Amino acid sequence: MGLHETPQANRVHIGFFGRRNAGKSSLLNAVTGQDLAVVSEVKGTTTDPVYKAMELLPLGPVLIIDTPGIDDEGGLGELRVRKARQVLNKTDVAVLVVDAAEEGRSAGNDGLFPPERELTDIFRAKNVPFIIAWNKTDALSAENRPPAASVSIAVSAKTGFNIKELKERIATLTVTGDTKLRIVGDLLHPSDFAILVTPIDKAAPKGRLILPQQQTIRDILEADAAAVVVKEHELRDTLQNLVKKPALVITDSQVFAKVSADVPADVPLTSFSILFARYKGTLETSVRGVLPLDTLKTGDRVLVCEGCTHHRQCDDIGTVKLPRWIKNYTGTEPEFSFCSGGDFPDDLSAYRMVIHCGGCMLNEREMNYRQRCAGDQHIPFTNYGIVIAHIQGILRRSIALFPSIVSVLEKE
User: Fold this and answer.
1) Which of 266, 301, 310, 406 has the fewest CB atoms inside 10 Å of its own CB, making it the most exposed?
2) Contact 325/293 with Cβ under 8 angstroms?
3) Does residue 178 surpass a pLDDT of 50?
C-alpha cells in the first residue's frame, strides 16, 4: 500500500446484499461509475464477496463489497451465503438490493420476500444502517414504482434513475471520523515529540514500514508534534543525545522488554498494539482478557488471530514467538490454533482464550464484533501487545497513560 492511500480499515465499508439476480452487481457498477463487478443474467454469478477500495463522492474513501446472493442453493450455496453474512460484521452501511419488477413481489405487507426480510432483521440486530434499493424500476410504470420512504428508494441501474440520490442517501447513513478517537494525537501537544521504536519487520514489504507505524506517524504529524523513528538498538543513544525529554515512547511489542529497560521511568511508554486496541475500542476488554493467562493449563486451547494474511516468516510473531513465550511463562503446554484474514470462527467454545493482533487491517466494527463474539461466549479476548507486556511484567507501565484502564487491573 502506498503512503498516499487511505488504509482499508479507515474506509467506510459499504456492502451490497440481496437475492440472486436482483441486480446487485449492476447497481454497484452504477453507483461507482465503474465496471467493478461481473454482470450476467445467470443466477449466482457473484460467488464470493468482492472488495474494491475507491473514492466515492460525496463520501470520500470507501470499500465497496459485492456479496453472493442470500438465496443461493446447495452445499456450495450455503457456504456462499455464510460468507455474505460474515461481510455484515465489517459493514458500516448496507444496501439491500431488491428486484422491484420480480413476479410475486406483493408477498408480505412490506413487499419483501422472506430472505430479504430476514436480512433487514439482521441489519437491525447488528445496528448496521441500511437502505433498501428497489432496483429495475425501469420495467415498471411510474405509478407502480415503490414509493420513497425513510429506508428505501426506487432506482434503476439500467437507466441511472435515482443513482445520485442513492449515493446521497448512503452518505447520510455514514459516520465520519470527526469525533473518532485518535491513535495517539490526543495524547500529544504541539511541539511535543514522540519516539517510535520500529524494528525492521521481516513480514513488511521491502522498503516500507508496517501499517500501524505509518498510521501512527501520520497521526503524530496531524497533532503538530514530531516523530523520531529509531530501531531498538539506537534507542538508548537517541535518548541520551536529546536535549528535550520525549512526551512518549511507542514501541513494537516484540522488543518491549529491551525498550522498557532503556526508557527512563519518568517517560511514558506504550506499544503500537496497545494504542490500536484503544483506537478500535477493545483496550479494556483486552486488559481483562490477559489475566486468565496466569491460570492456563496444559491442553487448554488458545486461538491466535491475525486480521491480515501475510507470508509467514520462520520466526513469525503469531505462530512462533507468542506460543513460545506463553509456554515459557506458564510452564505449561497449551494447544494453539491459528486464523487469519476474515476467517474468524463463530463458535469459540472450544478455546480457553483468544489472542488477537492489533487489528490495523480491520475496521472498528469488525474488531468490536470479534470482541463481542468472544464476550457472548464468555471467552477471554486480548491482544499480542498486552500479552507480551503482561509476560514481561510491564503491563501496568504500558497502560499508565490510561488511568481508567489501570483501574481494571486494580479491581481484578
Assistant:
1) 266
2) no
3) no
